């Protein structure tokens, strides 16, 4: 009788070296820090809530980018005896905190908008529009920089930063529109109302980032993969009777792992390693899963009451 053989055919690196993402985050951090301070003081002196809310959102971007920089640094560190999977989960934790920051800030802006509706304030149109236009230009540049980075490297922190800057871009547009509407209609209430609407859009992006990062932290099946289809494909491989102990998860975005046990139809004269190679090659070619751990079992030795 054959003994159980546990075989990891494809070896995945449990770390990421993302030079493009790191460069992108440094550029974003520098531009965002400078403009956040400019916008904050401009919003205070102009009396525009839309401008102040956007500055707080930009400050949250600075904090989020710092988290992302720390995450990329740790993600590049190789596994240790204690952290055998490396530090890749740090970038997912950072993404979760970034998404949470988006939601919290959006709620804060909505709260402030309600207060402004109750107690309207005068706005300095010229100062408000000038800073808003500068902000719009900076946010357009940063959005393109982040989108270009994602074309080269897939990184959830860059995606969360992109959501931050898309929110900022919308906010800048909203501030400009608000400024002109307030100037030519005299309706000061438009400032907090538009701020609240933009905040809802920002909150939506934050919720999406939180959901995706939580799925990875909970080791859920990646959204782009279907566990049932993968099971069926494995069972279609020659001489596979059944599979169980099936686990499909992501360590970090783009790094999928799969492990399962295999029961064969016929054991006599079968080369276990060739079976494992066939399954591994199929999973890599059809689903892009490279980190696969397969254990072949003999039911006469390994008895399972319930097979999944």
Automatic annotation (TrEMBL):
Q: Work out whether the entry's keyword set contains S-adenosyl-L-methionine.
A: no
Task: For this UniProt record, give its keywords in alphabetical order, as a comma-separated list.
Answer: Ion transport, Membrane, Transmembrane, Transmembrane helix, Transport
Where does the record place the Cation efflux protein cytoplasmic domain?
222-297
Chain segments annotated as transmembrane: 25-50, 56-75, 87-111, 123-150, 162-182, 188-210
**Compartments in which it is found:** Membrane
Q: What kind of membrane protein is this, topologically?
A: Multi-pass membrane protein
Q: Where is the Cation efflux protein transmembrane domain?
A: 25-218
Family from the record = Belongs to the cation diffusion facilitator (CDF) transporter (TC 2.A.4) family. SLC30A subfamily.
Looking at the keywords, is Plastid present? no
Q: What protein name applies here?
A: Cation transporter
Which is an annotated GO molecular function term of this record?
zinc ion transmembrane transporter activity
What organism, scientifically named, is this protein from? Streptobacillus felis
Main location, first listed in the record: membrane
Gene Ontology terms: cellular component: plasma membrane
* Record lineage: Bacteria, Fusobacteriati, Fusobacteriota, Fusobacteriia, Fusobacteriales
Q: Which domain of life is it from?
A: Bacteria
């Amino acid at each position: 009788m054959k003994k159980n053989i546990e075989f990891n055919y494809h070896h995945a690196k449990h770390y990421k070296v993302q030079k493009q993402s790191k460069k992108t985050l440094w550029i974003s951090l520098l531009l965002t820090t400078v403009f956040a301070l400019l916008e904050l003081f401009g919003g205070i002196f102009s009396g525009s809530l839309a401008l102040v809310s956007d500055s707080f959102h930009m400050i949250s971007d600075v904090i989020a980018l710092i988290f992302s920089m720390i995450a990329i640094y740790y993600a590049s560190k190789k596994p240790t005896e204690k952290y055998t999977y490396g530090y890749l989960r740090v970038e997912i934790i950072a993404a979760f905190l970034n998404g949470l920051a988006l939601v919290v800030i959006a709620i804060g802006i909505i709260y402030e908008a309600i207060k402004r509706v109750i107690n309207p304030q005068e706005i300095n149109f010229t100062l408000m529009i000038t800073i808003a236009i500068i902000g719009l230009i900076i946010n357009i540049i940063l959005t393109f920089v982040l989108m270009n980075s994602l074309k080269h490297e897939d990184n959830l922190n860059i995606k969360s930063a992109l959501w931050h800057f898309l929110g900022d871009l919308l906010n800048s547009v909203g501030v400009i529109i608000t400024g002109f509407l307030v100037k030519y209609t005299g309706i000061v209430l438009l400032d907090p109302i538009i701020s609240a609407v933009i905040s809802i859009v920002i909150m939506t992006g934050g919720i999406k980032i939180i959901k995706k990062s939580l799925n990875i932290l909970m080791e859920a099946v990646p959204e782009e993969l279907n566990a049932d289809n993968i099971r069926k494909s494995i069972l279609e491989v020659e001489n596979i009777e059944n599979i169980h102990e099936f686990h499909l998860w992501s360590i970090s975005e783009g790094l999928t792992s799969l492990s399962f046990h295999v029961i064969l139809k016929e054991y006599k004269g079968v080369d276990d390693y060739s079976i494992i190679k066939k399954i591994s090659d199929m999973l890599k070619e059809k689903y892009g899963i490279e980190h696969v751990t397969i254990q072949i079992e003999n039911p006469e030795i390994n008895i399972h009451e319930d097979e999944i």
